[in-house]
Amino acid sequence: MRLLAVDIGNTNLTLGLFEDDLLAGSWRATTRPEATPDEMAAQCVELLALGGAQLDEVEAAAIASVVPPLTATLSEALGARFRPGVETLIVDAAALEGVLAIEIDRPSEAGADRLCNALAARTEYGGPAIVVDLGTSTNFDIVSAQGAYVGGAIAPGLGLSLEALVGRASKLPRIELRRPARAIGTSTVSAMQSGTVLGYIGLVSGLLTALRGELVERSPADSHVTVIATGGYTNAEWLREVPGIDAVEPDLTLRGLRYAHAGIHAASGAAR
Question: How confident is the model at residue 182 (pLDDT cuts 50, 70, 90)?
């Protein structure tokens, strides 16, 4: 089975091509909410070509999207160019019924990427677990000891925080997002790096501590909470300074899409 997994985020569109359970390649492009179906199809073709693959080799597709206008656009683009019989599956809370228990107040509001992260974490690590997705926003997704998605936290992403700071303070320059040598900045740039990067490390660390504590309280005694980091900032040097991260998995969302596709088909087959 050659499965095309597509994660449409607010900043990046990420494609993964699976050959059975092996991720043969993944590619990332800038998300353009105004893109037409033709433009999205061309983008997919070009990204797959980087790995020597073609759309007509795809046997199924699964999409997780937090950009509603592009969900239909990409589905239309792929549907028009796939071979007859190739299915495009939109993964959301409704589609995951019977695959992932979603124990939050309004399941339909949960982002598909967050659900895919939870499903991948449960499948690969079991529960209890916390996924920290370091992207446009910083999402903390919680998997209970019983394997259910039970909510989490959403905070501004590192880049978004910096953009807000620079956009609202006219005298502050754009800076490189790297860890300063010291917390006490002696220039505007080093002070901003301290506040943004070190402050972000503190935000992630503090929320992890609070979330882990609550998750431990609702888990069996002696449970170990596994913390998995994913998202665009997983290659940042400062990530190693966040205590308690057990694994760094840049492609976790894509693997979650594969598990979702397999689980949905297994559930539908069992229902029949």
Answer: very high
Residue with the bigger pLDDT between 21 and 172: it is 21
If asked whether residues 17 and 77 sit together in one domain, one would say yes
Q: Is 113 a catalytic residue?
A: yes
| Distance (Å, whole) CA 254 – CA 18 | 9
- Reported as a single tens digit per residue, the pLDDT across 70-102 is 999 999 888 888 888 888 999 999 999 999 999
Q: Specify the CATH number for the domain of residue 132.
A: 3.30.420.40
Q: Which of 7, 92, 113, 141 is catalytic?
A: 113
Report the 10 Å Cβ neighbour count for 177: 17
Distance CA 85, CA 259 (A): 21
| Shared-domain flag, residues 70 and 117 | no
Range of the domain at 115: 109-252
**Domain count for the chain:** 2
pTM to 2 decimals?
0.91
